[in-house]
Design brief:
By secondary structure, the protein is an alpha/beta fold. Helices cover 53% and strands 12% of the residues. α1 (7-14) packs across α2 (18-27) and α5 crosses α6.
Length: 121
């Protein structure tokens, strides 16, 4: 079983949510993130460079899946099903193309798409 962590799971962990942290610690070897999650998480303002460096190290401890043609094609299929924000669509398509379970707290963002979803909080 492979998981693709949505940006919100990483953010919950960084904000001290014990459930998110526990899930990440138990499943880090079975988890990946999209390059979009990498970008979204690093878009936040950090108190200092030390904190930013620690976050980069955390993100780079995951397999990071870059977009490709198959993901782009799946995004276009998803848009025919429903309106979805581009970053969420890329994350969803990444999970779909790679047959990963998407771990998120924003289930509504992905309703109607052919995707396995797991919530943890």
């Amino acid at each position: 079983m492979k998981y693709l962590l949505d940006s919100n799971i990483i953010i919950y962990h960084l904000n001290g949510d014990e459930v998110a942290t526990e899930f990440i610690l138990k499943n880090i070897d079975f988890s990946a993130i999209s390059r979009i999650t990498y970008i979204e998480v690093l878009s936040y303002d950090f108190a200092d460079n030390e904190k930013r460096t620690a976050v980069i190290e955390l993100l780079e401890s995951f397999d990071i899946i870059d977009t490709n043609k198959a993901i782009a094609v799946q995004c276009l299929k998803n848009r025919k099903i429903r309106t979805i924000k581009v970053p969420d669509n890329i994350i969803a398509a990444t999970a779909q193309v790679n047959d990963y379970i998407l771990v998120t707290q924003n289930i509504d963002d992905f309703k109607g798409l052919d995707i396995q979803i797991k919530t943890i909080l």
